[in-house]
Amino acid sequence: MAAHADLFNTLSGEREEFRPLEPGRVKLYTCGPTVYDYAHIGNYRAYVFEDLLKRALAFSGYRVTHVMNITDVDDKTIKGANAAGTTLSDYTGRFVGAFFEDLKTLRISPADHYPRATEHIPDMVRIIRVLLDKGVAYRKDGSIYFRISAFPAYGRLSKIDAAELRTTKRIAGRIESDEYGKERVQDFALWKAPKEASRSGRPRSGRAGRAGTSNARR
Q1: What is the pTM of this model?
Q2: Mean pLDDT of 106-133
Q3: Which secondary structure element, helix H or strand E, spans residue 100, and what is its range?
Q4: Under 8 Å CB-to-CB from 107, ≥6 apart: which residues?
Q5: How does pLDDT run across 86-106, given as a tens digit for each residue?
Q6: Degrees to nearest 5, angle at CA 44 with 123 and 7
Q7: Can you give the three-state secondary structure of 114-152, one letter per residue?
Q8: Average pLDDT of span 209-213
Q9: Cα 95 from Cα 92, distance rounded (Å)
């Protein structure tokens, strides 16, 4: 039987008793690297914390299934592959390999699964179609964006007031550099229209472009 454990709930702002959905079992999903370059010490800070959490849960008696995603397609990876004159998979492959070597050096226990973004493009397309049908996503100049005004709870977990984002320096900078038109600057990309020919190829879904990787704050 798993031992009692308390965790800080970011949503409520309180320390609460941890109660998994399935008694005795924890399913842990963590954000992995975007492999356009070698990971740095700031990246590994997060991976070390995730490993510590997983080990603590396992030590407490929980059976932990850990999934860590690898983002192997975005603007930076495509740009890097084009500049290197190689395929997207060859370009990102060396950084994926270096990432796993670094995990061994830091003695971070491996995840059970490492799904790559390029392996799940059809799944992304299906989810985006559902969001479009529900009216919470929209098309603009070939790209597709999530309409955050259709999600009143947006920003609640990260304690961000969406109405105030427009006035921040960070957002102001993004307004100037954003190459994609959209209804509101806060809306984030779900799918980006192709900007240039690349060696990354067309996704297996047959749809031109690529999945968006904007920071979506919950």
Answers
A1: 0.81
A2: 96
A3: helix 88-105
A4: none
A5: 999 999 999 999 999 999 999
A6: 80
A7: CCEHHHCHHHHHHHHHHHHHHCCEEEECCEEEECHHHCC
A8: 66
A9: 5
